[in-house]
Amino acid sequence: MKMAEEGWNLYLHYYSNEEAVKELVQRIDHYGVEVIPIRANLSIPEEVELLIGNIFQLDALVYSSGNSNWGLFQDITESDIDYMINLHVKSPMLLVQRLLPKLIERKGAIVMVSSIWGQIGAACEVVYSTVKGAQLAFVKSLSKELSLSGVRMNAVAPGAVDTSMMGIFSEEEVTALHEEIPMGRLAKADEIADSIQFLLSTKASYITGQTLSVNGGWHT
Asked: Going from the N-terminus, what domains does the chain have, and what CATH number goes with each?
């Protein structure tokens, strides 16, 4: 919605949540921008090609994947690990690699949505912390390669955000979390969107290879 307000035409990737994408397309419609939904399962690297095959001109790429798992590391299965690595690391690397010619042509920008746990790690979210940390390393290293081409690459590392990912926690646990965060509340989704919008804008024209922490002062 933030990007549509600025007049961006949008490719919207989704996999299982088709109804949400249809609703979003309707909400965006009055902005007069072109919106193309594309379905692909990015936990399977082979389906990255389905997404790439439907993308033509490209000025910016935002990779925002929000699946986590919770539990002791010793109880996590190999298939869980493969799923998380594919979704958060392998698929975005393949996607960026294949789309780089289009981004270089347009001197575009890339934003990876990582996590505070990718910065500091979290018990009982070891795999999630690991793959989110890998995203940050990807941004730091690839941004250096891309700098002279005019393509900027940065990351956003949200703290706790009021989205469906918080649904695994009880009301009491969320209240306790509020008390841990210096600002006393969870982030709103549009506050994360604002940070992404900034990094894609000309206001961030000299910013690359950086991680913008949007966490209300939590664990800083």
From this structure: 60-214 (3.40.50.720)
Distance CA 144, CA 152 (A): 9
pLDDT in tens, 204-219: 999 999 999 999 998 8
Secondary structure of residue 118 in the 3-state scheme? helix
Coil vs helix vs strand at 134: helix
pLDDT tens digits for 97-121? 999 999 999 999 999 999 999 999 9
Q: What is the pTM of this model?
A: 0.94
Quick one: DSSP state of residue 188?
Answer: P
Would you say 25 and 35 are in contact if contact means Cβ atoms under 8 Å apart? yes
178 is written with which tokens?
């509020």
Q: Which of 11, 15, 63, 128 is catalytic?
A: 128
Query: Which structure tokens are listed for 166?
Result: 């918080």
Low-confidence ranges of the chain (pLDDT < 50): none
Main-chain dihedrals φ then ψ at residue 56, nearest 5 degrees: -115, -105
Is residue 135 within 8 A of residue 117, CB to CB? The reply is no
- Indicate if 15 belongs to the active site: no
